């Protein structure tokens, strides 16, 4: 569903929260952002979203709830589908996707499993426009981190994803 900002501002609280949960599955964030309506423009909504996220991310349960809204890419078959099926992807998301070697996809699947085993949550990264090799490089660079560092990294990436989804929700992408 794509809405104008005026339509979003006019949604019932329940429907607004449901729409926001499609952007980020942290209920605390969604409830607080819905409560902050009406917004004068999309920039005001994004600024409010950022401020609310900065507060709610201090509670690990909110972070994990948001991360749980993402599918884990844990097997080579799903990675091949993600990086090779470009028919429905936007042009900016296709860069390098068709060139993903099986070895890269296998390493990415293994890295995702290792990441989940080490940190207890899936690897969260703003993937738009990144090739499989770039994703693997980012994953391997972050894997040596401690859990607190990775919670912070994943929270920052989650916010980038949320902002993109808000823009798409509000027909502003």
Q: Round the mean pLDDT to the nearest integer and report it.
A: 87
| Name of the level-1 CATH class | Mainly Alpha
Number of strands: 0
CATH architecture: Orthogonal Bundle
What is the CATH topology assignment?
Answer: UraD-like
Q: Classify the beta-strand content into a percent band.
A: under 5%
CATH-defined superfamily: Oxo-4-hydroxy-4-carboxy-5-ureidoimidazoline decarboxylase
Q: H/E order of the elements?
A: HHHHHHHHH
Content-based structural category:
mainly alpha
Tell me roughly what share of residues is in helical segments.
55-70%
Count of alpha and pi helical runs: 9
Radius of gyration: 17 Å
Number of spatially distinct domains: 1
Mass-distribution shape: globular
Key descriptive features of the protein:
mainly alpha, purine metabolism, UraD-like, 2-oxo-4-hydroxy-4-carboxy-5-ureidoimidazoline decarboxylase activity, 173 residues, globular
What does the model show?
With 173 residues, this protein is mostly helical. It has a single domain, classed as UraD-like. Helix content is 62%, strand content 0%. It contains nine helices and no strands. The chain is globular and about 50 Å long. It starts with a helix and ends with a helix. Residues 85-98 have low confidence and may be disordered. Residues 9-167 form the Oxo-4-hydroxy-4-carboxy-5-ureidoimidazoline decarboxylase domain. It catalyses: 5-hydroxy-2-oxo-4-ureido-2,5-dihydro-1H-imidazole-5-carboxylate + H(+) = (S)-allantoin + CO2. Its EC number is 4.1.1.97.
